[in-house]
Write a structure and sequence with these properties.
Blueprint lengths: L5 H4 L5 H8 L5 E2 L11 H12 L13 H14 L9 E4 L1 H13 L5 E6 L3 H9 L3 E6 L8 H7 L4 E7 L11 H14 L2 E5 L23 E6 L12 E4 L2 H14 L5 H12 L3 H23 L12 E2 L7 H7 L2 E2 L1 E2 L11 E4 L4 H17 L2
Parallel strand pairs: 1-10, 3-4, 3-5, 5-6, 6-7
Antiparallel strand pairs: 2-8, 7-8, 9-12, 11-12
Helix pairs in contact: 3-10, 4-10, 5-6, 5-9, 7-8, 11-13, 12-13
Length: 373
Amino acid sequence: MTDFADRVERIAISGIREVFEAAGGDAINLGLGQPDFPTPEHVRGAAVDAIEGGATDGYTSNAGIPELREAISEKHARDNGFDVGPDQVIATAGGSEALHLAIEAHVSAGEEVVIPDPGFVSYAALTHLAGGEPHPVELREDLTMSPADVEAAITDDTAAFVVNSPANPTGAVQSEDDMREFARIADEHDVLCISDEVYEHIVFEGDHHSPMDFAESDNVVVVNACSKAYSMTGWRLGWVAGSDRRIDRMLRVHQYVQACASAPAQYAAEAALSGPQDRVHEMVDAFEERRDVLLDGLADAGLDTPTPQGAFYAMPKAPDGWVDECLDRGVVVVPGEAFGDGGDGYARISYAAGIEDLKDALEIMDDAASAVR
C-alpha cells in the first residue's frame, strides 16, 4: 500500500481555514487577508483587451511576458531604489508560489530556515515541504523581529531566514536600521535573506525598506505580488526577484510546477504596476482609518494591542476563550497560535473589511471580552 510522503504528513490544513469553516455563513469575517475593494478598472481592462486580442491563448515565457518583467524592474527602481533587470524576475502564481520557489531552490534536506514567530503560515509549511527545518524566532514586544535574535539563531545548518515587512499577521514594520542589519547578516554569514514585501505599499507611519537595497552580496531575494496593493488576490500574480544565478535555480522549479503564470493576469499586472497609482493611495488611507477605529474599539474593550504600522492586521492580546466567544457570536478572528507558538495568547484581526462591519464586530468583541473576564 502506498503511504504518504513524510514532508506532507508534517504539515496540516491552515488554522485560518479551520476558523473559517467553524464560523456561520453570515458571520462578520475579520479573518480574511483580502482587500474589500474592486480591482482597478484600468487593470481589468488590460486583461480584457489582452484576451480579446488573442494574446492570452497560449503559454507565455516561463519567466513571464517581457512587458511585465520590464514593469517589475521599473517598479523596483522607482519604489525601492535598487536595480533588478527584467531577466532577474520570475512572474509567479501569486506571492505564495514566489515563496515556494525561493525556499525550494535554496533549502536542502535537513537545513534550517529562520522564520518569525508568529509569522505567516506558509513559511514553516513550505520549509517542511522542501525537507528543511523551520527555526522560529520570537518577536519583540512591539512584534517586530530582532536582527540580533536572527543572527543568534544562525548555525552551520542555516540556509535562509525570512523577513516580512509590513508583516502578516502582526502589521509590524521593520525599521531602516533593522533592514540594514538583515542585509549585513545575509552578507557576513553567507545565508539567504528571503524578503517578503507583499504589503510594502500599505504603511501608515514611516517608510518601507528592503534589505536588497543595502546588501553587498546577492544573498537577498525579494518576494512580492499585486494581490494586496492592487486588490488582486484572485488574479494570482506575484513575482520573485534576485540575481541571475538565483533566478536560474528558481526558474528550474517554476517551469516544472507552474510552466508560467496566468497570461491574462500578467497583462493585468503590467497595467497595475505601470499605470496610475491613485487607487493604491486611496486604499491605504481607508485602511489607516479602519485601523484607528479598530484600535479605539479594542482599547475600549480592554484588549491590549500593539499599534500596527502597516498591512491590515492587528494582534491584540486575547484572554483565554475570547476567540471562541467571538466565533460563537458571529465574528471571525484567528487565534494567534495558528501563526506559531509565539502567537499563543494573541489573536489576528484583519481590518480589510468595511468600516461598518468593523464597528458592528467591535461591539460583539467587547461583549466577548466581558464574557471571559
